[in-house]
C-alpha cells in the first residue's frame, strides 16, 4: 500500500482540470496569469486572508515573506529544532540567522519557554511551524513575541484548513505561507506555494519580489504595471497549470479534510492502548485540527517500519534528524543533547498512510500489522 496515492482523485477531477487547463492554453499566459489570479482570489475567500500571493513553492513563500517583513542581514529568527528543513533554510536564504529552540513534547509545536530562553538582542522574528495535524501554541508564542518585541510569522505550509477562533493559520501574526507540494492537503502536480497576509504593504512587497522586484501587478490599488524594478527580486512566479489543478482540487478540499478526519479517528480507535505506540503529537486539546499527516511515536520505530514495508505498507519518517544537527548548521556549534525533545521525536516518529483515497480495509491492515509486530 503506497504512503500516498491520488490516482482516483485525479481521474474524478479530470474534466474540471482539463477545462481550467484549456483556459490556460487559450490565454497563452503560462505563468503569473489569469488562473493564478483566480486561485489567489479563491484562497483569499477560503482562508479569510485579505491578500494571497501565489508563488512557485512553499519554500520561496517563506523566503519572500521574511524579506518582505523586513528581515535584514544579521537579524535572528527563532525557528523550531524539529520541522521541515525549509523552516530554517528560508531564514538563511533570506539573509538572516536561524536560532533554534526546542519543541514541546505533547503537541510538537515550538515551545514558548524555549523561545524566551533563545532570544537575544538581535532577535527580531519568530517563525513557528504548524505540523502534521495541529497548530502550535499560538497564544503562548504571541505572548513571547510581544514581550520581546518580535514579529510573529508562521510556517503554515502544512496548515491549510487549520483555524483557531475562526482565524486561519498564517494570519495570527504579520503573515504566513501555504505549500501546494503534491502530498500536501491541497496538492498541485508539481511545486507551488503562497503567502497569506492581511498587511497590504507586505503583500505588495511579496508581489514585487516574486517577479524580479516589479511593483504593481495585482495588489491593492496599485494596478498599473510598473516595469521599473526598485528592489532586486526573485523569479518565484506560480505556473498557471498548477493554479488550474489547484482550482479544481479546491472544490473538494473540505470533503478531503473531512475524509482525513474520519480516517484519523479510525486510527485513533484501533490504536488506542496499543503497546509500543504513543499518540504524538496528541490529538485533541487544540482547536482546528486538520490531518495532513498521521504520526505516531513508536518503540523500535525502524524495526516497525521494516515490518510494515515487508508486508507492503509504505511509511515515512518525519523528520529523521533535528535541524540544528544538519551538516549545514555545524557552525552554530550544537551537539546531540541540546534539543532533547526534538531528538526524541526524530528517533521515534513514524507517519502512517493517510490520504482521502485510503480505505478502511487498508487502514485495518496497517493496524493489524502494528498489533502483530508488538505481540
Ligand atoms: C512542505 C513544507 C515546506 C516547504 O514547502 P515546499 O512547497 O515543498 O517548498 C515548508 N515548511 C513545512 C513545515 C512544510 O511541511
From TrEMBL:
The modification N6-(pyridoxal phosphate)lysine is found at residue 184. GO terms for biological process: polysaccharide biosynthetic process. The active site is at 184 (proton acceptor). Pfam families: DegT_DnrJ_EryC1 (PF01041). Keywords: Aminotransferase, Pyridoxal phosphate, Transferase. One of its GO terms (molecular function) is transaminase activity. Signal peptide: none annotated. PANTHER family: 3-OXO-GLUCOSE-6-PHOSPHATE:GLUTAMATE AMINOTRANSFERASE, TRANSAMINASE. Belongs to the DegT/DnrJ/EryC1 family. This is Aminotransferase DegT. It comes from Streptomyces tateyamensis.
Amino acid at each position: 500500500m503506497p504512503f500516498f496515492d491520488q490516482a482516483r482523485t485525479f481521474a474524478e477531477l479530470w474534466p474540471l482540470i482539463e477545462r481550467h487547463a484549456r483556459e490556460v492554453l487559450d490565454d497563452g499566459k503560462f505563468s503569473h496569469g489569469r488562473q493564478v489570479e483566480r486561485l489567489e482570489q479563491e484562497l483569499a475567500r477560503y482562508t479569510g486572508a485579505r491578500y494571497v500571493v501565489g508563488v512557485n513553492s512553499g519554500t520561496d513563500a517563506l523566503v519572500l515573506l521574511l524579506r518582505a517583513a523586513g528581515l535584514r542581514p544579521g537579524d535572528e529568527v527563532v525557528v523550531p529544532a524539529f520541522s521541515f528543513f525549509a523552516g530554517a533554510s528560508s531564514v538563511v536564504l533570506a539573509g538572516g540567522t536561524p536560532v533554534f529552540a526546542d519543541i514541546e513534547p505533547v503537541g510538537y509545536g515550538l515551545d514558548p519557554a524555549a523561545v524566551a530562553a533563545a532570544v537575544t538582542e538581535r532577535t527580531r522574528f519568530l517563525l513557528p511551524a504548524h505540523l502534521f495535524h495541529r497548530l502550535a501554541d499560538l497564544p503562548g508564542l504571541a505572548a513571547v513575541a510581544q514581550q520581546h518585541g518580535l514579529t510573529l510569522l508562521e510556517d503554515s505550509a502544512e496548515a491549510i484548513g487549520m483555524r483557531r477562533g475562526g482565524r486561519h493559520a498564517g494570519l495570527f501574526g504579520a503573515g504566513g505561507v501555504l505549500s501546494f507540494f503534491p502530498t500536501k492537503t491541497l496538492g498541485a502536480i508539481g511545486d507551488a506555494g503562497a503567502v497569506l497576509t492581511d498587511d497590504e504593504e507586505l503583500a505588495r512587497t511579496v508581489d514585487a519580489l516574486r517577479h524580479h522586484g516589479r511593483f504593481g501587478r495585482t495588489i491593492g490599488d496599485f494596478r498599473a504595471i510598473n516595469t521599473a524594478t526598485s528592489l532586486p527580486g526573485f523569479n518565484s512566479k506560480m505556473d498557471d497549470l498548477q493554479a488550474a489543478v489547484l482550482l479544481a482540487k479546491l472544490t473538494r478540499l473540505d470533503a478531503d479534510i473531512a475524509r482525513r478526519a474520519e480516517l484519523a479517528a479510525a486510527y485513533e480507535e484501533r490504536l488506542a492502548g496499543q503497546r509500543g505506540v504513543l499518540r504524538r503529537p496528541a490529538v485533541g486539546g487544540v482547536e482546528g485540527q486538520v490531518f495532513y499527516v498521521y504520526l505516531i511515536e513508536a518503540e523500535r520505530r525502524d524495526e516497525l517500519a521494516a515490518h510494515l514495508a515487508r508486508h507492503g505498507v509504505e511509511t515515512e519518517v518525519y523528520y529523521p534528524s533535528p535541524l540544528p544537527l544538519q551538516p549545514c548548521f555545524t557552525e552554530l556549534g550544537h551537539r546531540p543533547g541540546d534539543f532533547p525533545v526534538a531528538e526524541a521525536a526524530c528517533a521515534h516518529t513514524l507517519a502512517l498512510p493517510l490520504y482521502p483515497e485510503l480505505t478502511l480495509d487498508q487502514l485495518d491492515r496497517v493496524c493489524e500489522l502494528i498489533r502483530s509486530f508488538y505481540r
